[in-house]
User: What shape does this take?
Amino acid sequence: MSLQGREVILGVGGGISAYKSAELLRRLQDLGLQISVVPTRASLNFVGKATWEALSHRPVNENLWNNISDVAHIKSARIADVIIVAPTTADLLAKFAHGIADDLLTNIFIASSAPKILVPAMHTEMWENAATQKNVQTLRERGILVIEPDTGRLTGDDVGSGRYPEVTRLISEISAFLDLTSDLLGLKVLISAGGTHEAIDPVRFIANRSTGKQGYAFAIAARNRGARVVLVSANVALADPQGVEIVKVESAQEMAKALSDNFSDCNILVMSAAVADAKPAKLANQKLSKSDYSSIELIENLDILKSLTSAKKKQVVIAFAAETGEDSLERARVKISAKGADLLYLNDVSEGAIFGQDETEGWILNSSGDVSKFETAGKDTLANELLNLALTTRVKLGYAND
Ligand code: CTP
Assistant: This one.
């Protein structure tokens, strides 16, 4: 799989093996990756900035306090498709495991949702230390790839585990990981997020409780996996994810237009927005006074999803249903076929649950009638799980053959 043009941040920790990362950088460039180096201050005692600037053909900054107005750590964190830290010292492992952010690299690390790869290299005693091993375990549990060091000669006369791995092994483990996290490369993922506003008059509207967190989690997950992402966002108060094309809309009508403009060449549609089923029949030009709105006449909005799926060719479509009450699973089964979707995520929103939360819990249905429980987990985990299912559906339906 071509990784051409994907952005890598190569963090360099303060270990004697830092010089080996110069070779790693070259080999990563051979894969077509664009590299920006972020050395820690300590690492500059081993390899200077000039080396990294010359090899990466980019300016190198190690100081959180440089160009403050650029907010470099947040910018870099958003641009990165993957973060690799080599060598990762025992100190950096501890900082990453505990969320400590006290320099540019650790700030970027904590601010980024990109996949992360660590290459620990240190003396055997430090590597085998219980605190280090616990930190490695914590980081692995969070989905971070921590590559096993080699066993061999260390800096002094000693021999043991903790050696910076051979670059050929690093490249093969990194490419395998990147291949996994690049499985949407070349695909366009269209996502709707948030909740529509249907205007009553110039100051009032009908809205819903959707905050857009699920849709934004999809956008970030799909971007991290290499997709071209178009995010149609309705009234969301979240930061714009980088590397994603965002179309901001307010009403269902605007959302319908933005989605239909983008549907024909998309490969996966994620319809996570809460679309108002109805809107006021008349939009008042002037602010209504109390006496004018004892009742509001409503007319039905277009069912956006249905109208898109009626023109569906090779798109895998993921619908959402927020239901309350006992027969919600039954209603979801009816909904998936009525809407022409391939997958549907059902969550129970009784008493306002799920809205605005970082976690979700529900059921995943497919168009063949299979149902599986999605146990409580982050909205990003759900996004990745549904994207996995969308990819298998693409293969099953023969959409992936072109
Ligand atoms: N949806 C849509 N257009 C609408 C309403 C809903 O595209 N006008 C989409 C939602 O984004 C979601 C799916 O349809 O992916 C199901 O939404 P839901 O509100 O549960 O469905 P409704 O058709 O509104 O059904 P209900 O009668 O239960 O409100």
Remarks:
- The first helix runs from residue 20 to 30.
- The chain has two domains: 7-178, 188-396.
